Amino acid sequence: LLRRLLVSAVRFVDEQEQRLAAREAVIEGVLRDMVPPSPSQIIDPLPRIENVKDTEHAE
């Protein structure tokens, strides 16, 4: 029984690794085809974020 469980677990892990490798290949392919934006197109969101009152550390 223990041997069958172990074989099943190893098979499951192997299948998951194959699935992850396939997903990784797809994601890397998509990223490889993307052109990064130029620095002038990147907008810094920090100045637009509203300053929220800190109630967690209020005394």
Describe the protein in words.
- With 59 residues, this protein is mainly alpha-helical.
- The protein has a domain at 1-41.
- The protein contains 1 helix and no strands.
- It has one helix at residues 2-33.
- It is flat.
Summarize the structure.
By secondary structure, this protein is an all-alpha fold. It has 1 helix and no strands.
Oligomeric status of the shown chains? single chain
Give the overall shape. Answer: flat
Distance between the termini: 61 Å
Low-confidence stretches: none
Please write out the topology:
Layout: H1 2-33
List keywords for this structure.
59 residues, single chain, mainly alpha, 54% helix, flat
